[in-house]
Every structure is written in C-alpha cells, then in structure tokens.
Design goal:
- This is Helix-turn-helix transcriptional regulator.
- Keywords: DNA-binding.
- It comes from Alicyclobacillus dauci.
- Pfam families: HTH_3.
- This protein has 138 residues and is mainly α.
- It folds into two domains: 59 residues, Orthogonal Bundle (434 Repressor (Amino-terminal Domain)); 58 residues.
- Helix 2 crosses helix 3 and helix 6 packs across helix 8.
- The longest helix is centred in the middle third of the chain and has 15 residues.
- The termini are far apart.
C-alpha cells in the first residue's frame, strides 16, 4: 500500500477529519490533503511526526512493512505498568489471558493515550478480582 492510502486509512480509522490531522501536525489543511491525494510528497522531516501521531513506525507509512505495531511502544508500556504503577498488574493481566502487546498496539493506534491504556488495564484487573474500586487517576 502506498503512503497516501496509508495516511487516509490511519486517519479514517480514528474518525479524524483532514482538518483535525492538519491541526495536530500544525500544517495547512490543503497541504495534508495533498499528501492523502498523492498530489504532494510528504517531506522526510514530517514523516516521524506523522508516525508519532498515528503510533506507527515510519516503515509502515512508507510501505516497507505491513505491521503497524510499534514494538518499543508495547514493551515500554508493559514496563511502565509493572514498574511505575502496580508491580503485580502485568502478571495479573497475563493471567486474564489478554495479549497486552496486541491490545496496547490496537488501542494506541486508535488514539488512546498511555495513561488511558494503563487505567483500562487496571480496571480489567479490578473487575476480574471483583474489586469495585475505580482506578486511581494519574
């Protein structure tokens, strides 16, 4: 898949308008539209910023891989959950049979923030343990 198609797919997957993406990237709407329609080339210096916005590797944007998952993001989030929040949470989530890496990638690719992901995982553990405590806000 070529870059314009990837850009449109990633944007529409999040229900974002061209204007919203252009605002997030701090570029003109017509400029971003030109990228999606293949009328403009994306400058090399903007590729990492677009990749970060969509939580995908630049290789995915460029069609060098079909895997939109950022491996570092997944492992880093698990480390954050286990290290900074609750030392047992990663192990408890594994017991639930949840593929945390894939869940993390899916949710980040849909625009969820790391803190929202951590709260969701904490809620999953609390529900499984029959705890009705709301997750502690960050």
């Amino acid at each position: 898949m070529d870059l314009p198609k990837r850009l449109k797919e990633l944007r529409t997957k999040r229900d974002w308008s061209i204007s919203e993406v252009a605002d997030k990237l701090m570029i003109a709407k017509s400029t971003y539209a030109g990228y999606e329609y293949g009328r403009r080339d994306v400058p090399n210096e903007l590729l990492p910023k677009i990749a970060e916005l969509y939580h995908v590797p630049t290789d995915y944007l460029l069609g060098l891989t079909n895997n939109p998952m950022m491996y570092d993001e997944g492992w880093k989030s698990i480390d954050e959950i286990a290290g900074e929040h609750n030392a047992d949470i990663a192990e408890q989530i594994k017991k639930l049979g949840v593929d945390v890496i894939q869940l993390n990638a899916d949710l980040l690719n849909r625009g969820m923030t790391r803190n929202e992901l951590i709260q969701l995982l904490q809620m999953m553990v609390n529900l499984k343990s029959n705890k009705n405590e709301p997750p502690t806000p960050e």
